[in-house]
Design a protein that fits this description.
Strand content: 15-25%
Distance between the termini: 25 Å
Main location: cytoplasm
Keywords: Amino-acid biosynthesis, Aminotransferase, Cytoplasm, Pyridoxal phosphate, Pyridoxine biosynthesis, Serine biosynthesis, Transferase
CATH class of the largest domain: Alpha Beta
Pfam family, one: Aminotran_5
Family: Belongs to the class-V pyridoxal-phosphate-dependent aminotransferase family. SerC subfamily.
Number of domains: 2
Radius of gyration: 21 Å
Structural class: alpha/beta
GO biological process, one term: pyridoxine biosynthetic process
Number of strands: 15
CATH architecture of the largest domain: 3-Layer(aba) Sandwich
Bound molecules: pyridoxal-5'-phosphate
Number of helices: 9
Order of helices and strands: EHHEHEHEEEEEEEEHHHEEHEEH
Shape: globular
CATH topology of the largest domain: Aspartate Aminotransferase, domain 2
Largest sheet: 8 strands, mixed
């Protein structure tokens, strides 16, 4: 089976097998990792090792906190303004798709002005993100927020923006997919359920110099400073998610780290885009320069065939291909855990389907 779901997504099989083996007896303790205190030295050791592995993978500079939090990606939509902007601040957001829109509406609750600095547009080569020269940035924005990979729309900004304000990025669906220069960012956050581990868990990588005074009403569990001080254990963390994330980080290191993941991910995506571009039956409406390497939406020439396509795919063991309910069509999410064999199986099914019904 290959699971193309956008999230919660497929985890590496090796990781799941290891977790299964250790489920009843973790680290020789005779009990599951879920039944051990997060203050137990063995657990703390594992948790710190997971943090170090993540730091190694992303080359996180020392002047950044790495936080393991709860509340998923959306939790960070409200944590960010409350932690790094005052209530009377102006903040800049790019509105590039569905997730940016949700982030904007959440930020509006916590700051006096959310300026939408740039958007998506229809260009000659398809849907694209406005060029930075057309962005309307504020003079004194507390931060600039964008979502480099819009999971639903399959649109991506591959260049890190060159702006004055600290950059905040929602990397829920592209974190760890390729090498990244963390030093260009003020905050990077991600809900875990695509490239890291179970849903409900989140990671925030925060430049220490941004940890000034959080807003008064920020809830303690969302307070970056408090969580940093307590090693992300202000309250009981999601111990199982943290453990699984740690296994995923070790798996990524064993795969050759992010350089090798990046090559693999670009290759997988290119196989699908090339196939779709050559076909008269399938299409992708995003300008090639802005196409995601994690989420590949595609449409059939006749949407009346969508159901038959999905039914046949399921019979072939190709799961989770239905596009998001807001946009319809199909979407193949090909996060780190998806092997190239999964993509090949998908393309072989697509070719077959086109031959029979196209
Ligand atoms: N941001 C992006 C880019 C996402 O893809 C998602 C979920 O898919 C979220 C935020 C929301 O994450 P969560 O459901 O963990 O709150």
């Amino acid at each position: 089976l290959f699971n193309f779901s956008a999230g919660p997504a497929m985890l590496p099989v090796d990781v799941l097998k290891q977790a299964q083996e250790e489920l009843l007896n973790w680290n020789g303790q005779g009990v599951s990792v879920m039944e051990i205190s997060h203050r137990d030295p063995a657990y703390v050791h594992m948790a710190r090792e997971a943090e170090q592995d993540l730091r190694d993978l992303l080359n996180v500079p020392d002047d950044y906190e790495v936080l393991f939090l709860q509340g998923g990606g959306r939790g960070q939509f409200s944590a960010v303004p409350q932690n790094i902007a005052s209530p009377d601040a102006t903040v800049d957001y790019l509105d590039t798709g569905i997730w940016s829109g949700f982030a904007i509406r959440e930020a509006e609750k916590f700051v006096s002005r959310v300026n939408v600095a740039g958007q998506v547009q229809e260009g000659a080569k398809g849907k694209e993100i406005q060029s930075p020269k057309d962005w309307k940035l504020s003079e004194n924005a507390a931060y600039f927020h964008y979502c480099p990979n819009e999971t639903v729309d399959g649109i991506a900004l591959h260049e890190i923006p060159d702006v004055k304000a600290p950059i905040v990025a929602d990397m829920s669906s592209n974190i760890l997919s390729e090498p990244l220069d963390v030093s260009k960012f003020g905050v990077i956050y991600a809900g875990a359920q695509k490239n890291i581990g179970p849903s409900g868990f989140a990671i925030a990588i925060v430049k220490k110099s941004l940890l000034g005074e959080p807003q008064k009403q920020v809830s303690s569990i969302m307070d970056y400073q408090l969580q940093a001080k307590d090693g992300s254990m202000y309250n009981t963390p999601n111990t199982f998610a943290w453990y699984l994330a740690g296994l995923v980080f070790k798996w990524l290191k064993a795969q050759g780290g992010l350089t090798s993941m990046g090559e693999r991910n670009r290759h997988k995506a290119q196989l699908i885009y090339d196939f779709v571009d050559k076909s008269d039956f399938y299409s992708n409406k995003i300008n090639p320069a802005y196409r995601s390497i994690m989420n590949v939406p595609f449409q059939l020439a006749d949407d009346k065939l969508d159901e038959a396509f999905l039914k046949g795919a399921k019979e072939e063991g190709l799961l989770g291909l239905k596009g998001h309910r807001f946009v319809g069509g199909m979407r193949a999410s090909i996060y780190n855990a998806m092997p190239v064999e999964g993509v090949e199986a998908l393309l072989s099914y697509m070719a077959d389907f086109e031959r029979k019904l196209g």
